[in-house]
Amino acid sequence: MVPFGSKADPAGGKHIDYEEIYDRAIAPAIRAAGLDPVRVDAESFGGLIHREQLLLCDFFLAELTTADPRIFYELGVRSTVQPATTVAVVARGRGCTFQSEDLEPLTYELCPESGLGDEQAASLRNAIESRLRELQQADAPDVYSPLLDLLHDWRPRDLARLKTDAFHERVRSNLTFKKPLADIRSMNLSATSEARTALAAFRSERGNLEQIETGTVIDLLLTYRALSDWDGMIALIDDMPAVLQRQILVREQQGFAYNRRAGRTGSDADCERALEILSEVESEQGPSAETCGLIGRIHKDRWQQAREDGHADAADDHLMEAIASYRRGYLTDPRDAYPGINLVTLLDIHGTKESLRERQRMTPIVRFAVERRLDGPDCDYWDHATMLELFVLEHAQEDAEKRLGNVLSDIRETWEPATTVNNLRLVETARSDRGEDTGWIRAIIETLSRRATTEAHRRSLPRTTALPAGISSRTNHKGNP
Questions:
Q1: Beta strand ranges found along 85-216 (DSSP E)
Q2: Most CB atoms closer than 10 Å: which of 12, 177, 374, 442?
């Protein structure tokens, strides 16, 4: 159980790169001890906890430096059911002062810049390997759980051997799934049809999803999304075990897929189904930035369609619904700039005095959220593009033109500038209709459009593309919002 990506240093230093810690020290140490590292992918799909992994793995390693309450909770669960098979590690002097007579964590040093040097990485690898080998060689490990010390009449039951054997077999099988999925996602844009063929074959060969570890199923779902295969996403969710279908993340992605398919086919039924799914999620869990952002996107799409069809009243209704949804989402978490930028953009487009006053109040808050992202280690195209859109909304021509350079240099996929162009065109059209001078906005739009076209042409040039090893060419089937 190791955090993903870079996380804030509890001691106030530079962000800690947990990918480096995992790749250079933790995973190699586990392999050196003769074990397979299986990383709990909780963060990568909305906090879904792998209870099966937690309870059935032979040994459990928890990295505690961030003092994440979820990790401490899982550490407690594991210690109750599987005592004396846990290793805890924590960076020395970084804020977390975890101490326990029953579980002494391994401490390790980080460089002043919060990274691992060769010496620190080797030291941590050796310490973890040594501890794991000690645990493997212990004949009758002491029960160290304080809960078991208090409840003398209760002891954890032995987990059924058949169940653990089946788990181990699935883990080893699932470890071989991740690379083909990564290879499929990495196929370049000129090979989209080949990537979909490979993914269809991969899915067909997997069979019953009940036998596949949860994280791999989610990885498969997100691979369909990366290929914009909305039919595949929907079909995969329909095949999932009921307990997984009920997860918030899966239902959000289901609504997302139905709406994107509706955008492709014009199906009102798909659009209504998407709204039904996401409204149920919001009703159950309350508003969130993600759910409300997806609902806002549905109404935003319907507003654009109604406007193109000349249905002014319906268009206005959907515009107000989109504004309300983005507002609900942003107010639940002002750190998430996605619903925030959509809120201020649609308020500007609505253009009434009241809407423009609200846009003026909300824009500095959204800007602050984006600036925090831009100051961090994980800023990307979307952060620069959001800041560009904010400058346009604030009539800050000079700042917008300067930010355009960052946007152009951070483009990764052709659809990214195309999305920004669409948003800016909505603003430019609304302001032009109000009689404002929008020539400078059009110039930015034209620059982005040219780059999108150039990038699409470059990526469409013929290249040799091979299917990932072990995947046949049989055909079957089944972003950033």
A1: 86-91, 106-108
A2: 177
H runs (alpha helix) in 266-414: 268-285, 289-308, 312-332, 337-350, 353-375, 381-393, 397-409
* Residue linked to tokens 């307990």: 243
For the residues 142-171, what does the mean pLDDT come to?
A: 55
User: How many angstroms separate the most distant Cα atoms in the chain?
Assistant: 82
Give dist(CA 369, CA 359) in Å, integer.
15
pLDDT at site 200: 87
Q: pLDDT digit string (tens) for 180-220?
A: 887 887 774 456 788 888 888 888 887 888 777 777 788 88
Question: Is residue 52 within 8 Å of 38, Cβ to Cβ?
Answer: no
C-beta of residue 68 within 8 angstroms of C-beta of residue 3: yes
Please answer whether residues 74 and 62 qualify as being in contact, where contact means their C-beta atoms are separated by less than 8 angstroms. Answer: yes
pLDDT at position 143 is 47
Per the CB < 8 A criterion, the answer to whether 98 and 106 are in contact is no
CA-wise closest residue to 192 among 415, 362, 391: 415
286 Cβ partners below 8 Å, 6+ apart? 332
CA dihedral over 226, 229, 233, 234, signed as positive or negative: positive
DSSP helix/strand/coil, 6: strand
Q: How many CB atoms lie within 10 A of CB 111?
A: 12
Q: Is the dihedral of CA 72, 23, 225, 214 positive or negative?
A: negative
3-state secondary structure of 231: helix
- Among residues 180, 201, 183, the alpha carbon closest in space to that of 191 is found at 183
Residue 308 burial (CB count, 10 A): 9
Q: Give the pLDDT score at 471.
A: 32
- The whole-model pTM stands at 0.66
Helix locations, 176-267, DSSP H: 178-186, 192-206, 214-226, 230-239, 242-245, 248-265
Decide the pairing of beta strands 16-17 and 60-63.
Answer: unpaired
Residue in this structure with the two tokens 């990307």, named with its chain if needed: 380
352-411 confidence digits (pLDDT tens): 999 999 999 999 999 999 998 888 777 889 999 999 999 999 999 999 999 999 999 888
> Distance (Å, rounded) from C-alpha 47 to C-alpha 285?
14
- C-alpha to C-alpha distances, 11 to 373, 412, 454, nearest whole angstrom: 20, 34, 45
